[in-house]
Write a structure and sequence with these properties.
182 residues, globular, mainly alpha
Length: 182
């Protein structure tokens, strides 16, 4: 199951937040995802509804619309979550879920590299997130879903052909293809 980590579409128990002193990490990319994953590990039950409770608007002038090299810092956020998980009793299935969530979020962020106009930024994001995906897949191999394993295989191929994927020709092709699909 894929549950978006956007906090504005969820209800949280304040008692649990206070008991474990959960706070948003400062100066970390994706601090909402980090908070969410820590909170999720503490839950005994989760209720899900298919009803839309919030519509998220993404503006090019907002924080999520800007492209920045700090996107690679999502790796630091996941390390913070890992250290939190080490401090609490947690099941193997929860650890497995974390590996799959990591890979899927790295993949979502990885796909944004084509939006970078500066080639050095594009290369930095491509290699930083590709390395994070490879590292996570190797550590979490016994837990990976078929989709997560496919992500890892795709990244391995793209790393071998990184000069192609980083080229302006490929990036322009991908952007034009995305525009024609919309």
């Amino acid at each position: 199951m894929w549950i978006l980590p956007l906090l504005d579409s969820k209800l949280f128990l304040k008692e649990l937040i206070d008991q474990y002193q959960l706070r948003f990490a400062k100066d970390v990319y994706a601090e909402d995802l980090g908070f969410y994953l820590k909170y999720l590990a503490l839950c005994k039950r989760i209720y899900v509804t298919s009803r839309t409770v919030c519509r998220y608007r993404k503006l090019s002038t907002g924080l999520t619309g800007r492209r920045k090299r700090e996107i690679v810092q999502i790796y630091d956020m996941f390390q913070d979550v890992d250290s939190f998980y080490e401090k609490i009793p947690i099941s193997q299935s929860a650890i497995g879920a974390l590996y799959n969530i990591k890979l899927q979020h790295y993949w979502v962020q990885f796909q944004k590299y084509i939006d970078y106009t500066d080639r050095s930024d594009r290369k930095y994001v491509f290699h930083g997130l590709a390395d994070a995906i490879s590292d996570t897949a190797k550590k979490g191999k016994p837990f990976l879903s078929d989709f997560s394993w496919l992500i890892y295989q795709t990244i391995r191929k793209r790393k071998r052909w990184s000069m192609l994927y980083l080229s302006n020709l490929y990036v322009n092709y991908k952007k034009s293809k995305n525009q024609s699909e919309n």
